[in-house]
Structures are given as structure tokens and as C-alpha cells.
Design brief:
By secondary structure, this protein is of the alpha+beta class. The chain has helices at 6-9, 84-94, 119-129, 137-150, 154-165, and strands at 15-21, 24-30, 46-55, 58-67, 74-79, 98-104, 108-115. A hairpin with a 2-residue loop joins strand 3 (46-55) and strand 4.
Length: 166
Amino acid sequence: MSDIPASVLAKPRGSLVAVATGPEVVLYLRDDAFGLKRYPSQRCAVDLRLGTWELDRVTLAALILRLARSDATTFDYHLDVSTPPAVRLLQCLVGQNQIDIHVVTETIARSFRIANPVRLEAGYLVNRLRSLPAWSPEEYRQALVRLTKLYPTAHALWWASLEQEA
């Protein structure tokens, strides 16, 4: 993949963006040339989770990417799973065996390909969404504000998602 979507290039440094391209999801980690120094080399542990939380009748979901098992290189991407684009993204994840992750400046600086560890969680969430009552964009924003107060950083969200399994 040589073209970086304009929506990714418009994001600030340190942003994780998930883009459904055809039947697959590609993750982009946006940074600048100076910031590339904080990322591990091509060979490092790459972990990805799909965390979900229920707050005020709203189901919140986030893809959480962790490079080199470091809190400093942990990033999140929140999904409003009441919207068609987010549901489509989840559906793509269900059928995807591998995920490409690109660290980008104005070009792709580094790439990782990992086995898709979130297939089952994405499928479970898509099935569960069919039986949940709808929520408004305002209810989503309010629930997301509560979640970010509980877990103000991506690495706090990472550790909270691990607690869900326990």
C-alpha cells in the first residue's frame, strides 16, 4: 500500500487511525520524522486488543495498539459502534486473517503485519449490537467523556482492557 489516506495525514502526531479499505482494515499510526525515534525497529512485539465497556446504556469500543510492550508506545482508536462505518470496520475485522499496521509521516516509515488477534471479539460485538438499544451521538459523547476520565491515557485503557478478561 503506497497511498496514505488524507484522513490519516490530517491527524495530529501520535494518532492511531483504523481505515477499512475494501474488505480489510489497515491501521495507521501518525507521527512526524522527529517522533519516529520513539518507535521500535521492524522487529518488536506488536499487540492489538479490542476493548469494550458499557457506560450509561452505551457500548464503547476501542482498538488499542501496543508496540514493544511499552506504555509509551500504546495508542487507541475509539469506535462509535452505533454508526455504520464502525460496524463495517468491525465486520471487516471478523473476516481478516492479518492486519497491516503502518507508522506514517508523510510517507510510510515502518510497517508491521500481525495475525489478527481481534477477530473473535469483533464478531462477538457485531452480534451483540443487533440486540442492543440504539443511543444518540450525544449519549455516546457523554459516555466517552466518562471513559476518558476513568482511563485518561491509551496505556491506562490498555491495562483496563486486560482487567476485563480476569
